[in-house]
Each structure stands twice: as C-alpha cells, then as structure tokens.
Amino acid sequence: MPLFLLSVSSWTASTTTLIDMSTYVVAQLSDDLRIAYRDATPSGAQLGIIVLIHGFPQTSYQYRHAIPLLVDKGYRCIAPDYRGAGGSSKPESGFTKATMASDIHELLNYLDITEPVHLVGHDIGGMIAFAFAHAYPKRLKSVSWGECPLPGTKTYYRDRTGHAVQQFHFIFHSVLDLPEALIKGNERIYVSHFFNKIAYNLAAFTEADIDYYAAAYSQPGAMRCGLGVYRAFEQDAHDNQALLETYGKINVPTMVLSGERSRHKAEAEEMVLEVTEKKQVDIGVVKGAAHYLAEENPEGFVEGLLGFIQKHP
C-alpha cells in the first residue's frame, strides 16, 4: 500500500467532520470515576463491536479518522479516554493496567454490552488490552495490541537498558514530582517531541491536532495521571509474570499490530509469542506508518484490523 498522506488543509477539514460522526459522552462508573468515551454506530446492520484504547500522549481523539471507516464497514466503535486522560477523571491512583482494564470492563457493563467484543489497544492501550484479555477472556472475540514493550517481557527489559535513550521517558516518568515540574507550561513542546521523534508520516499531525493533545494534557492533574501510567510499569510487570505463571499464556485470538517503519516491529513476534498461545497469534503490519498507526495511515490501520477481525466474526 502506498504512503497515505493528506494535506494540512484537507486533514483539518476532515477532522471536524469525522469527530462530529461519533458521540462523546461520559459514563459515571462510580462516585470517584467517570470515563469519557466516543460511541459511533452504523446506520445499517451491525457486524460487531470494536473497542479502541488509545496511548500516550494521546486520547480517544487518536481514532478520529479510523472510527468512521470502521463504522462504514458495519462496526459499532467505542473509544474511551482511559482514566486520567482526556475527559475522564483524574484520580490519584489506579494506574496499573489491571485496574485500567477493569475500568473498560465496567464501561461495557455500564453500556449493557454482553456480547463479546473486538478489543484494540495501541501503546499504553495495548498494555491495557493485554491485561483485559487475561482477566476477561470470555468478553472477547479477539484482541489486537502492539506498539508497546509489554511490561514483564524480555522486550520490556531490553527497552529499559539497550534502548534507554529512545525510551528515556520510561525512567523519567517514574521519578516522583520532577517531571511534572519540568513539563508544566511546556506541554506542547513535550507532546510534540514524541510525534516528531517516532512518527514516519509527520503530515498526519496538524498544528490543530498538536494543540488538541497539548490542551488535553494541560488540564489539572492530566500530566500527573499520564506519568502515573508509567510509574505503574514495574507493578504491571510483576502482575503479568504472575498471571502467566498461574494461568498460562493468553488463549484469545490475538494480533500484534506494528508500523512498517516502527522499531517495535522487529520484536513484536517474539514478544507476543512469549505471552500468547502460538495457535492464536497473527502478525500485522501497517504500511506507511511508524508508531502512530491510526493517525499516520488510518486506511491501512483499518484494512489490517478488519482483515484480522473478520476471521473471528
């Protein structure tokens, strides 16, 4: 597939249209936790439900281009802002991926969704999707995750050593208080750093898109929560290793999805086979993209995702 590019002007115009095609509402899951989410339903027959979990430094906005394409193919799409991000609550704790997976489970219950869903997670969302598949396998038809070094795997520990400069933020975010102090007032610079460093199709991110993410993480408590997600990694590693030792590998149809131009692609297969039964594993690659699959090449992302999902109707 050729590189998917849009001009800045056409991208900005389409962004407004695409965002308007999904409803952005809030679910009050408890006295202390609300989860904001986008919910878009096809006008005709519904083939299934796809739940899309974003990464850092993003929100559900990252799926603004993919959601309409998926809905057009007959799928209901639900894209939450995970706890601490976007329009969701900014709690003091609860950033282990097991807890964040529980939030998604509670959201499905809140929405009275009882049928198994297709769960998709990118970056931090991939870690949450994996935790969900371990905890609630019967709620899934399939799970797709990638572009993340899953805590507890060999890839994760290599990223903290051999790739320490590239992944500096894994350690930086884990330091208490200092990152918040240094980033405050510089959220746009900090957010832009990640897109500039690990995107291949930089044209995918307009000034308005960067402004959106910077504003989201400039909210009171938002950056603290974003860093808290990383501060929980070592607990996540312990949790994942304990679950694998106790219950064995994931036995849910799984696709690990990487960008053609991403560094993570080289280690994706090894990583997923370390934690998932081989018979359940598919390997997906989105052409013309590095890390930010659904934004750098939304058409390629949707094509790869549906190619896998349609094997598990």
Blueprint of the fold:
Elements: H1 8-20, E1 23-28, E2 34-40, E3 48-53, H2 66-72, E4 75-80, H3 97-110, E5 117-122, H4 124-135, E6 140-146, H5 154-159, H6 168-172, H7 178-183, H8 187-198, H9 207-218, H10 222-231, H11 233-247, E7 254-259, H12 265-275, E8 281-286, H13 293-296, H14 298-309
Parallel strand pairs: 3-4, 3-5, 5-6, 6-7, 7-8
Antiparallel strand pairs: 1-2, 2-4
Helix pairs in contact: 3-4, 8-9
How is this structure best described in words?
By secondary structure, this protein is an alpha/beta fold. The protein has a single domain (8-309), classed as Rossmann fold (3-Layer(aba) Sandwich), CATH 3.40.50.1820. It is built from 14 helices and eight strands. The chain has helices at residues 8-20, 66-72, 97-110, 124-135, 154-159, 168-172, 178-183, 187-198, 207-218, 222-231, 233-247, 265-275, 293-296, 298-309; strands at 23-28, 34-40, 48-53, 75-80, 117-122, 140-146, 254-259, 281-286. An eight-stranded mixed beta sheet has the order 1-2-4-3-5-6-7-8, with helices on both faces. Strand 1 and strand 2 (34-40) form a beta hairpin. Helix 3 crosses helix 4 (124-135) and helix 8 crosses helix 9 (207-218). The longest helix is centred in the last third of the chain and has 15 residues, at 233-247. It is globular. The protein starts with 7 loop residues before the first helix and ends with a helix. The model is unreliable at 1-21 (pLDDT under 50). Residues 49-143 form the AB hydrolase-1 domain. InterPro entries: AB_hydrolase_1, AB_hydrolase_fold, Epox_hydrolase-like. Residues 1-17 form the signal peptide. Keywords: Hydrolase, Signal. This is AB hydrolase-1 domain-containing protein.
